[in-house]
């Protein structure tokens, strides 16, 4: 018995989607001890737009994205401001996607690295959209490493013990969660 063509196409598409889902789950499980349950979720466009509309960055600015996912924040900032952009990602699937989507784009570096082990002193702007359980440790790391004048942007979750310079709320029904803007003060 021969199956109709549309059934074969449906089965191939369903099989590919199932394989991608298995790959996503495996990649998330691989980094679970480091992410403490945080999954790769792309930063929604309205949050990226709110960030870029409110933080000016010149061509010499070094933007660092901690847990850059698919690299969309880096690409958007590079496109708009011409920044130098570095993203750190430990999820192998997200890293691969970020590298693929950033191929041939000068000024963007995607590193398969644990940002906890990286020195962030050169950053001018640090962007993150991380799981809340990581924020206390991140606040301590940033306080230790960032220099005065550096801007920190955190989607959804505040840095404990820090006072936000501004809190943005994108005007969007599904993506109106806060975007916290911090500035490292001069000593």
Mean pLDDT, all residues? 87
Which fold does the CATH topology of the largest domain refer to?
Rossmann fold
User: What is the count of DSSP helices, taking H or I runs of 4+ residues?
Assistant: 6
Percent in helix = 25-40%
Strand order of the largest sheet: 3-2-1-4-5-7-6
Instruction: Report how far apart the termini are.
Output: 78 Å
- The second-level CATH architecture of the largest domain is 3-Layer(aba) Sandwich
Total beta strands: 7
Give the strand content. 15-25%
Reported for the largest beta sheet, the result is: 7 strands, mixed
Brief descriptors of the model:
187 residues, alpha/beta, Rossmann fold, seven-stranded mixed β-sheet, 6 helices, 39% helix, 18% strand
Can you walk me through this structure?
This protein has two domains: 5-30; 45-183, Vaccinia Virus protein VP39 (Rossmann fold), CATH 3.40.50.150. The protein is of the alpha/beta class and 187 residues long. A seven-stranded mixed beta sheet has the order 3-2-1-4-5-7-6, with helices on one face. The protein is elongated and about 75 Å long. It is built from six helices and seven strands.
Present the secondary structure layout.
Elements: H1 5-30, H2 32-35, H3 45-54, E1 62-66, H4 72-81, E2 84-89, H5 92-102, E3 108-112, E4 125-128, H6 135-145, E5 151-155, E6 166-168, E7 179-183
Parallel strand pairs: 1-2, 1-4, 2-3, 4-5
Antiparallel strand pairs: 5-7, 6-7
Provide a compact summary of the structure.
With 187 residues, the protein is an alpha/beta fold. It contains 6 helices and 7 strands, in the order αααβαβαββαβββ. Strands 3-2-1-4-5-7-6 form a 7-stranded mixed sheet, covered by helices on one side.
């Amino acid at each position: 018995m021969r199956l109709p063509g549309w059934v074969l196409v449906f089965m191939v598409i369903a099989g590919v989607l199932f394989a991608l889902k298995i790959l996503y789950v495996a990649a998330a499980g691989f980094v679970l001890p480091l992410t403490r349950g945080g999954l790769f979720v792309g930063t929604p466009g309205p949050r990226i737009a709110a960030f870029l509309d409110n933080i000016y960055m010149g061509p010499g600015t070094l933007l660092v994205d901690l847990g850059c996912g698919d690299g969309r924040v880096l690409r958007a900032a590079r496109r708009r401001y011409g920044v130098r952009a570095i993203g750190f990602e430990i999820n192998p699937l997200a890293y691969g996607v970020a590298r693929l989507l950033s191929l041939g784009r000068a000024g963007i570096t995607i590193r398969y690295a644990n940002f906890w082990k990286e020195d962030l002193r050169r950053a001018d702007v640090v962007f993150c959209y991380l799981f809340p359980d990581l924020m206390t440790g991140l606040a301590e790391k940033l306080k230790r490493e960032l220099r005065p004048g550096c801007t920190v942007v955190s989607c959804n979750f505040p840095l404990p013990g820090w006072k936000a310079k501004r809190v943005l709320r994108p005007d969007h029904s599904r993506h109106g969660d806060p975007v916290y803007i911090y500035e490292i003060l001069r000593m």
